[in-house]
Specification:
Largest sheet: 6 strands, mixed
Structural class: alpha+beta
Bound molecules: zinc ion
Radius of gyration: 15 Å
Strand order of the largest sheet: 2-1-3-4-5-6
Low-confidence stretches: none
Mean pLDDT: 90
Length: about 170
């Protein structure tokens, strides 16, 4: 179920106003709908100060965040047609955008993954380091029985913990 309480929980520790919650719910629904129709990825940027929204086709993940005004905080929500959690590129893009408060992924099976900045400093991390964690978890003998999706979730959890980010998963739609 997609409701205000669930959204507030998943976007923890951000404190969201009612208008922003409405925009986030709408964004999850929109990327799912347009994404399912075209089977491609879309991203919606929401400005936390003005609640203004913009929809973008993702040709290049890195470009999306920078379409926002650079000094305003923002939330980016995009869809994953193949139901995977965040990619290394998603995480690096989130890390690089200092005003990027939350990154949400809406999978086509209804699962949502949300990563949000906590109060800790933005510990430096490279794209190669992120990829290395993904590869290490994928190849680890102790995770041999897990699916690729579960392995990615573990890798994201480890990176989020290192960075002081909050990583949450929920069934949204
Ligand atoms: Zn993505």
């Amino acid at each position: 179920m997609l409701d205000d309480k669930k959204i507030q929980e998943l976007y923890n520790p951000l404190i969201l106003g009612d208008d922003l919650i409405d925009k986030i719910i709408e964004a999850h629904k929109t990327v799912l709908k347009v994404g399912k129709t075209s089977n491609t990825e879309y991203a919606i940027t929401i400005c936390c100060e003005t609640n203004a929204t913009k929809i973008h086709t993702i040709g290049n993940h890195k470009s999306v965040a920078y379409l926002c005004e650079p000094d305003k905080s923002y939330i980016v929500i995009h869809n994953h047609p193949n139901n995977t959690p965040f990619s290394p590129r998603d995480l690096f893009s989130f890390y690089s955008g200092i005003h990027h408060k939350s990154l949400g992924v809406q999978c086509h099976d209804g699962t949502a993954y949300i990563i949000s900045r906590g109060t800790l400093n933005n510990t430096a991390i490279s794209f190669d380091k992120i990829s290395e964690v993904f590869d290490r978890v994928r190849d680890a003998p102790e995770y041999i029985n897990l699916t690729l999706r579960e392995k990615r979730e573990i890798a994201i959890f480890l990176i989020a913990r290192r960075q002081g980010w909050v990583f949450l998963k929920g069934a949204l739609i």
